[in-house]
Design goal:
Blueprint lengths: L12 H4 L18 E7 L7 H13 L1 E10 L3 H9 L3 E5 L2 E4 L1
Parallel strand pairs: 1-2
Antiparallel strand pairs: 2-4, 3-4
C-alpha cells in the first residue's frame, strides 16, 4: 500500500496517479465543478431538515452522470429524496449512483 497522505487515505501508486481529493464547504457547494464521487459522512444530521435539503441540492448537482454519492444520514426524508427527487439509483445503504 502507498503512503498515507494529508487525508489519512492510503493509495497505491496506480490510484494515486488518478485520484484527486478536494475539500468543499457544504454551505457553499461545488462552484460548478463535477465530481465522480462525492462523500458526505455524518454531517447532515447536525442541521435542520430545510438546510439538509439545500445542501443535498448542491451535492447532487456536483455529481457527474455515472458518478457516485455517499451520504450517511439518519433522516428517512433525505434517504427518500435522493432517488425520487434527484434521480439517483440506490446501490446500498447511503450509497447512490447518478443515472
Amino acid at each position: 500500500m502507498g503512503r498515507s497522505g494529508r487525508y489519512g487515505v492510503r493509495l497505491g501508486p496506480t490510484l494515486r496517479a488518478v485520484v484527486l481529493f478536494k475539500e468543499r464547504d457544504i454551505t457553499v457547494g461545488s462552484r460548478g465543478h463535477r465530481f465522480e464521487v462525492v462523500i458526505c459522512d455524518h454531517v447532515l444530521q447536525y442541521y435542520a431538515e430545510a438546510d439538509q435539503i439545500a445542501f443535498l441540492d448542491r451535492m447532487t448537482r456536483a455529481v457527474q452522470p455515472g458518478g457516485f454519492l455517499y451520504v450517511s444520514t439518519p433522516s428517512i426524508v433525505i434517504v427518500e429524496l435522493i432517488p425520487q427527487k434527484y434521480g439517483f439509483q440506490a446501490l446500498a445503504r447511503h450509497f447512490y449512483r447518478r443515472v
